[in-house]
Amino acid sequence: MTDKEWPLYEVFIRSRAGLSHRHAGSVHAPDDQMALDHARDTYTRRTEGVSIWVVRSDRIVASDPAENAAFFEPAKDKIYRHPTFYEIPDGVENL
Amino acid sequence: MSRDEAVIAYVLRLADNALILAQRMIELVTAKPELEEELANANFALDFIGQARMLYSYAAELEGAGRSEDDFAFMRDGNEFRNLLLIEQPNGHFGDSIVRQYLFEAFYVHQLDALTRCKDQRIAEIAARAIKEVRYHLRHISHWLIRLGDGTDESHQRVQASLDELWRFTGEMFVSDEVDVAIRDNLAGPDLEAIAALWKRDVEDVIAEATLQLPEDQWMARGGKQGQHSEHFGFLIAEMQFLQRSYAGASW
Fold first, then answer.
1. In this predicted complex, what is the ipTM?
2. pTM of this prediction?
C-alpha cells in the first residue's frame, strides 16, 4: 500500500440535451474510468444529468489571476461589442 | 406446492437476496476507504432496498394475509429467509466484499434479464427497473475487481484469496429446486442452466482481465434458498431486526 492520494478530476455535467456541460465539482479517482464512475455516483444521484465529462485537474490550463488586468480589463470599455444597440423586431422569439 | 405458493416463494427469494445484500453493504457505511466509494456503496445499497421493498409488497399482495413489507423484513426468523449463502457472507476486507458482490451481480443481471420476459407482469416490471441499476453496479464492481487483480502484488494475492474463499458459494445459484422449476415452467421464468453458462462466460472474461485464476471445480455449499443459513446469518438479522423486535411498530 502507498499513502499517495488519488489524483483529482474536475466533473462537468450536461443537465439536459441542448444545454452545455457545466462544472459541477470534483472527485478523486485512481484513473479515468473510475473518475467517470465516481462522478456519476457523486453528482447525478438526483437525476442531475444526461452526460458527464471528467478531466484531470492538472490537465486544465488556467489563466493567472495576477494577469487579470491585462486579460480582462481591456474589454470593459468596448461597450459597442454588446448587442444592446439593436432593436429587436416584435415577434422574434429566439434571439 | 400450488402455483401461487411457488410465485410467493420465488418473489421472497428475490427480495431476501436484495435485502440481505443491502444489509451487508449498510454495515460498510462510513467504513469505505474513500469518500467517492462511500457514496457508491450507499447508492447501491439503496438500490437494493428499493428492489426489496417492491418485491416484499408484491409478495404481501399475493399472500393476502395482511403482512407488510416490514413484517417480511423484520418479523421473520432466520430460517424463513431464502437468500443465497453467498450474499450473507461477512464483508471481510475491501476485496472480499467486491468479489462477493461481483459473483452475485454477474448472476443477478442474467436472472433479471430473463425475468423481464416472464409471464408475470408485475415481476417483469420490477425486473425491468432493477436491471438498469444492476448493470451499473456490475460496471463499477468489475472495474474494481480488474484493478485489484491487476494492481499490486499484494492486492492481486488478496483478491485471489477472496475469490478462492467465496467460490464454493456460487454453485447454489444454479441448482434448481421445485420453486425454480415452477417459475420456469409456469411463468416462462429463468432457465438456470442457461444462466450458468452466461455467468461462467462473463466471470471468465473479467477474471482473465484481472489476471486472476479461476478456482478449480470443487464442493459447493447450498441450503440458503431452503432456509438453511451459515453461522454468520443469525448475527446479521439480530442487528437488522433488533429495533423492530424490541419496539414493534417504532417509527420516526
1. 0.82
2. 0.90
